[in-house]
């Protein structure tokens, strides 16, 4: 049921369908009930119900797996123009971001890519577009190396959004990516 909920979320199921699956597995035991709480927040955010972002952060704080949700929260804060909140989280959880950057675990490496992506968006939102584009391109290269193709496409789509701000170094990196 847990995986069915993720599949529905990724393959275009409705929010109601996803929440129904989450409710079903939440009744299995306390462990799955706890997972269901976080997954409900993730579902709301994936369906762009961003009013749940702060409650998700509150739920994550103090949890061992906080690194899983922070990149999404940072990304949404950037989308909402909440740059001061992004800066606060970056400062508060800097040690977590460093820790996952050094990890050799594939899942943590993917989470680190998501963090770097949200950081690139933050750079662009602060008008440090050159740095943000470099970060987007570097993350795209890492996504190729890790075989995370869905994320790779997302990163390049954001690069395309800023295509009017690229310089020759960006273009060289981009062409290098396309040749991989």
Q: List segments where confidence is low: pLDDT < 50 over at least 5 consecutive residues.
A: none
Q: Helical stretch count?
A: 11
**General form:** globular
Main beta-sheet annotation: none
Could you tell me how far the N terminus lies from the C terminus, measured between alpha carbons in angstroms?
A: 37 Å
Q: What's the rounded overall pLDDT mean?
A: 90
Rg, please?
Answer: 17 Å
Give me the strand/helix succession.
Answer: HHHHHHHHHHH
Q: By helix and strand content, what is the structural category?
A: mainly alpha
Helix content: over 70%
Strand content: under 5%
Number of beta strands: 0
Folded structure, characterized:
There is one protein chain. The chain has helices at residues 2-10, 15-26, 30-46, 53-60, 66-79, 83-92, 94-102, 106-125, 129-146, 149-161, 168-178. The chain is mostly helical and 180 residues long. α4 runs antiparallel to α5 (66-79).
Q: Which helices and strands, and how do they pair?
A:
Blueprint: H1 2-10, H2 15-26, H3 30-46, H4 53-60, H5 66-79, H6 83-92, H7 94-102, H8 106-125, H9 129-146, H10 149-161, H11 168-178
Name the features.
180 residues; mainly alpha
Concise structural overview:
By secondary structure, the protein is mainly alpha-helical.
């Amino acid at each position: 049921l847990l995986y069915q909920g993720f599949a529905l979320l990724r393959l275009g199921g409705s929010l109601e369908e996803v929440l129904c699956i989450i409710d079903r597995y939440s009744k299995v035991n306390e462990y799955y009930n706890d997972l269901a709480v976080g997954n409900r927040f993730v579902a709301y955010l994936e369906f762009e119900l961003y009013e749940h972002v702060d409650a998700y952060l509150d739920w994550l704080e103090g949890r061992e797996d906080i690194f899983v949700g922070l990149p999404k929260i940072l990304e949404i804060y950037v989308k909402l123009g909440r740059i001061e909140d992004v800066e606060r989280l970056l400062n508060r959880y800097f040690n977590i971001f460093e820790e996952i950057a050094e990890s050799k675990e594939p899942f943590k490496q993917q989470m680190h890519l998501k963090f770097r992506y949200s950081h690139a968006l933050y750079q662009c939102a602060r008008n440090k577009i050159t740095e943000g584009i470099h970060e987007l391109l570097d993350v795209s290269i890492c996504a190729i190396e890790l075989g995370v193709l869905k994320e790779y496409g997302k990163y390049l789509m954001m690069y395309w959004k800023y295509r009017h701000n690229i310089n020759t170094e960006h273009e060289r990196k981009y062409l290098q990516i396309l040749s991989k």
